[in-house]
Design a protein that fits this description.
The N terminus is likely disordered. Helix content is about 55%, strand content about 10%. The protein contains 22 helices and eleven strands. The chain folds into three domains: about 250 residues, Rossmann fold; about 110 residues, no CATH class; about 80 residues, Arc Repressor Mutant, subunit A. The protein is α/β, with parallel strands linked by helices and about 475 residues long. The chain has a five-stranded parallel beta sheet, sandwiched between helices. Strands 1-2 form a two-stranded antiparallel sheet. α13 links the parallel β5 and β6.
């Protein structure tokens, strides 16, 4: 079977024969028939949430920040960072735009089609993917999510995959959480009995989730092979479809090779997926040309696997509606010119636009204002540039360290010009672009269409780098 092709579109199913049902009730998660019926209805009829329901969820997402309190006779304002978060992925209810991306990816993955999302850092890639995983979980799929930024090496990846896989069973979720959060955790008594019973069902990979020494007893290739096979084992045993989300996949094939030989590991992953008809993958990465090399280069083991999904832009109208609603949550109104200034200076970049909106709200709070005009929006933009100045300075120093060609190329891209020009050797420009891409400074939309992904950094370079 081609791992990139479609399979069953149902995440959770019921077998009709009594023997299968008996075995599942004995070894899988306990479920009631009426609950299964409800889950099946959710899987086959994906309905958008009612507006009132979504609004309630949005307010709940604020947590303690959503509580208006009286302090010294004055109503406390909502936190700017809670209204306009910039440092972590957003919950589905808090996203602006991208609903079409979430729905399309959900439909594809529920249908058994592998998908790849490659987009620069801080553009909402992880938020979209996490929203997709959450939606699939609501439909009854088992889900496994790991980020290679958080897993330092092969043994950590093997153990993380095993823990995330087993956590799909209610009876094992709390036990895996204890194993993750407790130093020197040792299985004893009833917990040890549970692990041994599950190990007899699903194989030796189960032990890795609870015992760090079990990973150490295997070499990295053996540990990863066991972890890669576990999702299919539990999905088949519990009669579910399982979706694996691996974020920052380009780290798997990086030059540092922290997980072992990159091509050998990718070949192992593909072979495992060939043998896992109930497992569908969502891969995401923030260095686009490395992700495309992994999945399109004929010399790489994952060539031709799955298909790329390009994130759509957040439209100006979506920004206007989304930002205005967040200002309104704090009782603020923002006029059309001010809103246009926030969106224009953010250039549609999710993190930059949210940062400028956040700093605009900070300026309003400082002035005790609830009516936001162009002056406050301009202050917000200048404050955002000031807040990013240290990071921009460090990035420009890194660009200088890459050599004069990298500095010249970044200056041309910041000005909206082509990186190639008369007097510059093509090979030198190509090397500079590759180094800048690895440093996370530039990205590529299509063949030869390079750009600086952060518009605030591009502005800083235009204003401060003189050749």
């Amino acid at each position: 079977m081609d791992p990139g092709g479609p399979r069953s579109s149902i995440c959770g199913t019921e077998r009709s024969d009594e023997g299968s049902r008996t075995r599942r009730e004995a070894s899988g998660p306990a479920t009631r028939p009426e609950r299964d019926d409800g889950r099946r209805r959710r899987m086959t009829h994906s309905r958008p949430r009612p507006a009132a329901s979504r609004r309630r969820a949005e307010h709940e997402a604020y947590g303690i920040f959503a509580i208006l309190m009286w302090h010294n006779g004055h109503m406390q304002r909502l936190s700017s960072a809670a209204l306009f978060p910039t440092e972590q992925p957003l919950a589905h209810e808090r996203m602006i735009g991208r609903e079409a991306d979430v729905q399309e990816l959900t439909t594809q993955l529920a249908g058994g089609v592998h998908r790849i999302v490659a987009a620069p850092r801080r553009t909402g890639k992880s938020s979209v993917c996490r929203a997709v995983v959450a939606e699939l979980r609501e439909r009854g799929c088992y889900t496994v999510s790991v980020s290679l930024f958080r897993l330092a090496d092969g043994p950590a990846l093997a153990r993380g995959l095993a823990q995330e896989t087993l956590a799909n069973r209610d009876a094992l979720r709390r036990l895996t959480q204890r194993a993750r959060g407790t130093a020197g955790f040792i299985l004893r008594g009833a917990s040890l009995g549970v692990m041994l019973r599950v190990k007899s069902e699903l194989g030796d990979a189960v032990e890795m989730a609870f015992d760090p020494l079990a990973v150490a007893r295997l070499d990295t290739a053996e540990a990863l092979a066991a972890a890669f096979s576990l999702p299919q084992a539990i999905a088949e045993r519990d009669d579910r479809q399982l979706v694996v989300f691996i974020d920052e996949l380009q780290e798997l094939a990086g030059r540092r090779a922290p997980y072992g030989d990159p091509d050998a590991l990718l070949a192992q992953l593909r072979e495992s997926l060939h043998e896992s008809p109930r497992v569908t993958c969502l891969f995401a990465g923030s260095i686009e040309h490395l992700m495309r090399d992994i999945f399109t280069s004929a010399r790489r083991p994952m060539a031709g696997f799955g298909g790329f999904h390009e994130l759509g832009p957040i439209t100006e109208q979506e920004w206007r509606e989304g930002l205005a609603a967040r200002f309104d949550d704090d009782g603020c109104t923002i006029d059309a010119d001010a809103l246009g200034r926030v969106i224009a200076t953010g250039d549609g970049h999710p993190r930059s636009t949210m940062l400028i909106a956040q700093q605009t709200h900070v300026a309003a709070v400082e002035d005790g204002a609830h009516d936001i005009g162009l002056v406050l929006a301009e202050r917000g933009f200048r404050s955002a540039m000031l807040a990013e100045r240290t990071r921009h300075t460090d990035l420009v120093d890194r660009i200088r360290a890459l050599g004069a060609p990298a500095l010249r190329v970044s200056r041309r891209l910041a000005a909206g010009e082509t990186p190639y020009r008369a007097g510059m050797e093509s090979k030198s420009v190509k090397r500079a672009l590759d180094m800048l891409a690895l440093a996370g400074v530039v990205s590529r939309r299509g063949r030869g269409d390079w750009y600086i992904s952060d518009p605030l950094l591009a502005r800083y370079i235009r204003e401060n780098v003189v050749l």
